[in-house]
Design a protein that fits this description.
Layout: E1 2-6, H1 17-24, E2 30-32, H2 38-45, E3 50-52, H3 54-59, H4 63-78, E4 83-87, H5 96-103, E5 109-113, H6 118-125, E6 133-137, E7 151-155, H7 160-171, E8 179-184, E9 192-197, E10 211-215, H8 227-238, H9 244-247, H10 251-270, H11 274-298, H12 303-316, H13 319-322, H14 330-345, H15 362-375, H16 383-403, H17 406-426, H18 431-455, H19 465-478
Parallel strand pairs: 1-4, 1-5, 2-3, 2-4, 6-7
Antiparallel strand pairs: 7-10, 8-9, 8-10
Length: 479
Amino acid sequence: MIEVIGLGAGDINQLSIGVYKKLLNSEAIVYTRTLDHPVITDLQQEGVRFYSFDKIYEEMEDFAGVYEKISTYLLDKAKDGPVIYTVPGHPMLAERTVQLLLEQDEVPVEISGGQSYLDALFTSLEIDPIEGFQFVDGTSFERRQLNYEQHLVFCQVYDSFIASEVKLSLLEDLPPEYEVTIVEAAGTEKEQLTKLRIEDLDRTVEVSNLTSVYVPPIQHDELSHRFSRLVEVIAALRGPDGCPWDQKQTHESLRAHTIEEVYELIDAIDQEDDDNITEELGDLLMHVVLHSQIGADSGYFSIEDVILSATEKMIHRHPHVFGDVQVDSAAEVLTNWDALKQQEKGKQRDSILEGIPKHLPALAKAAKIQQKAAKVGFDWAEAKDVWAKLEEEVKEVKAAITSGVAEDIEDEFGDVLFVLANLTRFYQINAEVALNRANRKFISRFTHIEQRIKRQGKRLEEATLDEMEAYWQEAKESE
């Protein structure tokens, strides 16, 4: 069997008489996770022999490997006879090796002794855990797990690397000047509390295996960067004491505003303006939450339903990431995507062209129609065939212009634009994006013409075509 004994959080005075005698009277070597504990030193002076696993920490690349190796070693030793294994603090507090031993059923495990340092910690910090308390392993945690509105304590912050990792995670959510407390050797004669800013966490204080980091609760409204806070703000705006404008909005009334936000985001992306992209994405996200709140107010759906739908869709349509499907190219991903999408709809569509949004801009819609048709083989073999078709359509435009029938001219110009949208697809160019780029280019150059002529004290109407062309070329060269 293996008997796991906790050495307490401080010096030898914290050991019970029974545990002290058991260790003192042990004729066999006592295994210990680490020698870096004040009780070990006292017991060694009284003749207790220890075998530590400190070297394993240097040999292994991660803590998971360390704990696995320690537990495997102990189980092997236990096959030859009883084993005593000591750990700092209480065996059931932040001791992964103990959990691994308890998870197996090959060798009996008995837990005894060990005063947890949490009581001393609460006393030192003068906090009541009933207010909400989170205890986190500094060597193994994820940012999403942290609840900053409760008392938060990181244990096992025993070197500068771990302190740095904790600091970087905290800085993702809290301001650099937010004050935390470094707790050293809680409940012992060497206890020391040091308050400092988060940004100095790994700079000014020496850490050890008795070091913890305490983060006091932060006010809820100071966590405005969290998604839940945005949801609350939108709910408040739609609530009884909220904003009259927000209160009266419907899905239908927001349509034009939502479309406008999408175009503003596209403009920001085209301008490669990261700050503006951030702002416009925020505006678009706000619309998603607002539409979701309208759904919640009506009792039809909530933001959680929206998130669930998106999450499940992404998992289902990416079996090559979340399942065991193998893909070799992006084209295979798209093929699988379409098949899974069809599967989700539950019924066969009457036409391959169904599902194209009605309100797509005409040029983008043309490209989408051709893309869908091409997936079932209705497509030109090569780009040169499309070029030939374009020349044919241009001739038909000219013929329609000669005939002078306005409806025919409009019809033939439409054919030209449709073929152009198809042609851009062959070169992996988005026709809508390309045309918008040309629009911006024209606006930029024409604005330059206006400014140059204005500097001469002339009105635009007074400038000659040659002057405007010269300034156009000037703007083009400056680009």
